[in-house]
């Protein structure tokens, strides 16, 4: 509703700021939520022996609070017109953008690009670490018992499962990029296109706001708890449950 509302002349500037701030706070909080989730997943995979600490109420509460805190701080600048940033209505149709263009890059960097970069870094490191662990475990598979005191076959299954999870998470991040970044790129290169071609903007924003529910990996896989060395809900390949 905040996005589709058309700012009319009867609306006061305070109404614009309120509706636009709600919309952008929700949007940036969504990006930062995925960022903190990626950090938590990476730490869980990198330090499985610390899983009890990472599952503590204090850590979970911090992960829930940080995205909203980051989003509110970033949106304080256009809400109160600091450093020339402000919300402005999209013409000729409803919605709001942050302008002017020369300073709007601040919100794009701290609201979209930084969380996306951190997500990519976490998932890339996770898949590299998991791939290295599989290769290293294959070399030691014939030794009966390993340093952890578990049978090599059992440990190999655990390592392979971690590799599958890392692969799915990385592909989910690629889907996130495909759904999220067309609008920021278009706004940067051709900002007038958002207001001139409403159907184009709607087609680009639909996956941006619905990529979580429409991710093919979510549809083809299932959510399951990765117990053993990892304790967190992930999206798994269907074959992992067999």
TrEMBL record:
InterPro entries associated with the record: GPCR_Rhodpsn (IPR000276), GPCR_Rhodpsn_7TM (IPR017452)
Localization: Cell membrane
Membrane topology, from the record: Multi-pass membrane protein
Cellular compartments per GO CC: plasma membrane
Gene3D superfamilies: Rhodopsin 7-helix transmembrane proteins
Transmembrane segments: 59-83, 103-130, 165-183
Residue stretches making up the G-protein coupled receptors family 1 profile domain: 1-189
Ranges in coiled-coil conformation: none
Chief subcellular location: membrane
UniProtKB keywords: Cell membrane, G-protein coupled receptor, Membrane, Receptor, Transducer, Transmembrane, Transmembrane helix
A Gene Ontology molecular function term of the record: G protein-coupled peptide receptor activity
Cell membrane listed as a keyword: yes
GO biological process: neuropeptide signaling pathway
Official protein name in the record: G-protein coupled receptors family 1 profile domain-containing protein
Organism: Ramazzottius varieornatus (Water bear)
Name of the encoding gene: RvY_18065-1
């Amino acid at each position: 509703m905040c996005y589709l509302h058309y700012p009319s002349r009867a609306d006061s500037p305070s109404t614009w700021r309120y509706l636009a701030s709600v919309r952008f706070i929700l949007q940036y909080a969504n990006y930062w939520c995925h960022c903190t989730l990626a950090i938590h997943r990476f730490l869980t995979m990198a330090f499985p022996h610390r899983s009890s600490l990472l599952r503590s109420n204090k850590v979970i509460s911090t992960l829930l609070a940080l995205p909203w805190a980051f989003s509110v701080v970033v949106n304080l600048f256009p809400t109160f017109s600091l450093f020339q940033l402000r919300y402005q209505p999209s013409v000729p149709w409803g919605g709001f953008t942050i302008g002017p263009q020369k300073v709007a890059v601040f919100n794009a960097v701290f609201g979209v690009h930084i969380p996306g970069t951190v997500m990519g870094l976490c998932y890339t490191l996770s898949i590299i670490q998991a791939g290295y662990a599989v290769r290293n475990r294959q070399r030691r598979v014939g030794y009966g018992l390993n340093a952890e005191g578990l049978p090599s076959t059992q440990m190999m299954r655990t390592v392979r499962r971690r590799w599958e999870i890392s692969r799915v998470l990385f592909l989910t991040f690629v889907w996130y990029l495909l759904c999220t970044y067309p609008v920021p790129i278009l706004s940067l290169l051709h900002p007038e296109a958002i207001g001139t071609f409403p159907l184009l903007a709607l087609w680009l924003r639909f996956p941006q706001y619905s990529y979580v529910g429409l991710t093919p990996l979510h549809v083809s896989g299932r959510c399951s708890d990765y117990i053993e060395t990892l304790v967190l809900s992930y999206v798994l390949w269907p074959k992992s449950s067999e």
